[in-house]
Each structure stands twice: as structure tokens, then as C-alpha cells.
Amino acid sequence: MIKNNHVEKTNFRLLIENDSVGRMEERLNIIDTFLNTEEHVTLENMMQLLKEAGYDYEPDFVRQCLNRFGEHGFAQKKTFDGQSPRYEHRHLGKHHDHFICTKCDKIIEFDNDEMERLQLKIASDLGFHMLQHKMEIYGLCSDCMAQRRPLMPLSMAKSGEVVVMRDMTGGRNVRTRLASMGLRSGDSLEIINNNGQGRLIVGHGSTRLALGRGIAQKIMVSLAKPD
Ligand SMILES: [Zn+2]
Ligand SMILES: [Zn+2]
Ligand SMILES: [Zn+2]
Fold this sequence. Notes:
Layout: H1 5-17, H2 24-35, H3 43-52, H4 59-71, E1 75-78, E2 86-89, E3 97-101, E4 107-110, H5 113-125, E5 136-139, H6 142-146, E6 152-153, E7 162-168, H7 171-180, E8 188-193, E9 200-204, E10 207-211, H8 213-218, E11 219-223
Parallel strand pairs: 3-5
Antiparallel strand pairs: 1-2, 3-4, 6-11, 7-8, 7-11, 8-9, 9-10
Helix pairs in contact: 1-2
Bound molecules: zinc ion (3 copies).
């Protein structure tokens, strides 16, 4: 994204100088920090970014500033379903829409000229004069989808596949044995050799491990994301 913070900061100073609001330098520090991110930040995110930049202001003051940035056209306040309000940088003359992951709250921006044109056309076909719109599409991001991949026992994985350990059945004994080999839920395993009987040879980090078929049946895995 184009970094024109300086221009925007000057613009903001000019706009609020006449409003005779106090704490001008602090407000400018807050807008600077805000303009430095292109994320959709909550008040908590902003407090964190300010802290990282070495500033310590009261949340109420920061919230008030963010709302003022909104009134002056530097920020846009968005409240996605089920989330705390977020603020994002408002780029004049540019429009985008959002995908919102309902599982991890991730927000993905998109813009599509064809869809924008289609919306205008549908409106005009109905004799409607469109002024503005927001499109919010709710669903699951690719990371959250990957976690929903079906589970299977490790013993079913095919040679060459990369799988992620998700769960272990068989209680503490199994867990302890796996832990002693350094295997934990969330670890990736590369199936080096599984011929359907006997032991499996798997790659774990830079080590090759031999796992008995019995224990391999108790480790539940899902296929890793292909990339
Ligand atoms: Zn749009
Ligand atoms: Zn997600
Ligand atoms: Zn956005």
C-alpha cells in the first residue's frame, strides 16, 4: 500500500486545529500508529500497537481519537457479526469488501470490478440508485478449513503423504510413549514407508521413526494442507 502518512497526518492536523481539541501531539501519534497498519484493528489491537510504538494512553482517549478519525474520513469503523468494532484505514476513492472467518475472526479483503459492476446493473435494472454498499461474506478461512479435514488413523496414511497429528486414542500409555519419542499433537509427519503391514517409517522433523502398527492405529491424523 502507498505510504502517504505524512500527507494524511498534515491533513488531519489542519482539520482538527480549528476544533480546539487538546492533546494535539498525542492525537497525531495515535493517527500515525493507526496509519502504519493496514489491518482491521480493534481497540485492543490499537492499544497493543501503541504500546509497541512506546506510547501509553488511556483506552477511552484512544477510542475517542479513532472515532474522530472516522468522522474526518481517515478511518472506517466496521462491526462484523459477533466481533468487537474494528477500525480500518479509509483510502479515498477505493472500495473493497470482506470475507470474515467465523471461527478465528480472520478478515480477508477483496475487490472485484466485475461484481461491483453487476451490483450497479442489478440496482439500475430495478430503478434503484445505489449510493453505497457493504458486502460481508461469512465462512471459514483456509486454515480453519484445513483443521476440519477428516481424521483417519495414521496406519491408513499412504507412503509419500504428509499428515498432521490431531489426536490420540488409547489413553495415557499411548500419549506417554509418543511423548517419549517427541511426538505431539499438531506435529507433521511424512509417511516414508507404509506397506500396509508391519511397522511404518515416518519422518518427523529431521528424524526417521519406526512406529508399530498397533500404535499407528491409535494416532488420529489429517492430511496436511497441500502447498
Ligand atoms: Zn463492493
Ligand atoms: Zn479462520
Ligand atoms: Zn477492509
